[in-house]
Write a structure and sequence with these properties.
The protein has 319 residues and is α/β, with parallel strands linked by helices. It has two domains: 173 residues, D-Maltodextrin-Binding Protein, domain 2; 130 residues, Periplasmic binding protein-like II (D-Maltodextrin-Binding Protein, domain 2, 3-Layer(aba) Sandwich). It has ten helices and eleven strands. The strands form two sheets. It has a six-stranded mixed β-sheet with strand order 8-7-6-9-5-10. Strands 2-1-3-11-4 form a five-stranded mixed β-sheet.
């Protein structure tokens, strides 16, 4: 029996699967929790499948690189309005006000930051209208290359002196930051806030316009694993969905971990369709197409890819 070693972020909905409440048939599964995404799954000696960046996968496909095979199963989804932060005393409260401003990003080609730049473009703020600085969010994060080949002197650069973006924001050298996760202590007198004060309403209005919550990370496999065990990929995807459904049912019952979690569950059920988190190509066709178009428009990929080009059916007859 084959064992699939899966590397994923520490998402709570994996709990039933990780604890064995839900088990695969026909293969064994090891769920490995990782703090950062696997850098090179194709050549990993540790993992057979993993949660990977949608953007970086699209870049591989755009270059004709088929070293990974992925399913349109979105392990991470999330609105991005909440991910634009500024200082409490800033006068900025809307996306259009970011024109001409200095914005820090934690990674230029990241899926989340690509989606956030799409929000700005929708508000009439193009990439050329902003001065961009890529760097680590806080001093606890490592200094690494966060620009890749996308730097443009005087326009898209590394953070000055590699200083943490939060520090630069607090001293006024940045006007805002794009970040996937809030820095530690954000909610406890940090002097920071979301740019849009009622970001939930902004997110809901955006959902009602486009019909989806953006996807950021997807489920990927080494192609050899998928070819040798052709049923494993689809079964693993279904197992993860089952784990998420069971976890959601448990959250409805055990909602007292935070005082208003139950209200959030209620509001989500009221405001979003029941299948907002559904996986698969057809359910996510518009979102996938929109993301591919944004990556092309932003110069992340050199050609506009179709959903089928991003998620082709694996040819099991290949060697």
């Amino acid at each position: 029996m084959v064992t699939i070693r899966l590397a994923v972020r520490d998402w709570d909905y994996f709990t039933p699967l990780a604890l064995g409440d839900i088990r695969p048939e026909g293969f064994a599964l090891e769920v490995h929790r990782v703090g950062t995404l696997v850098n090179d799954l194709a050549n990993s000696e540790t993992y057979d499948a993993a949660e990977i960046s949608f953007s970086r996968y699209a870049q591989l496909r755009a270059r004709g690189d088929s070293s990974l095979w992925a399913l349109p199963h979105f392990l991470m989804r999330g609105f991005r309005q909440r991910c634009i932060i500024t200082t409490e005393n800033s006068s900025l409260i809307s996306l259009d006000q970011l024109k001409g401003k200095r914005i820090g990003v934690t990674g230029w080609q990241d899926s989340g930051n690509s989606w956030t730049r799409a929000l700005l473009r929708e508000a009439g703020v193009e990439i050329e209208d902003v001065y961009w600085y890529a760097g680590r969010l806080t001093a606890d994060h490592p200094i690494v290359d966060r620009l890749g080949s996308f730097g443009r002197p005087g326009h898209i650069e590394a953070a000055p002196g590699e200083h943490p973006l939060i520090d630069l924001l607090k001293v006024g050298e940045l006007d805002a930051i794009f970040t996937p996760f809030m820095p530690q202590g954000f909610f406890n007198g940090s002097g920071l806030r979301q740019l849009q004060r009622d970001f939930r309403e902004a997110e809901l209005a955006w959902f009602n316009r486009v019909g989806y919550i953006p996807g950021h990370h997807i489920l990927a496999f080494k192609p050899d694993i998928a070819r040798r065990y052709p049923d494993v990929a689809a079964e693993l995807s279904e197992l993860i969905d089952r784990s998420a459904r069971l976890w959601h049912e448990k959250r409805e019952k055990y909602a007292d971990t935070t005082p208003w979690l139950l209200d959030d569950i209620r509001r989500t059920a009221q405001d979003l369709p029941a299948d907002w988190n559904r996986n698969g190509l057809e359910a996510n066709r518009k979102m996938i197409g929109d993301f591919a178009s944004e990556l092309f428009a932003q110069g992340i990929i050199a050609q506009r890819l179709t959903p089928e080009a991003l998620f082709p059916t694996l040819n099991y007859g290949e060697a």
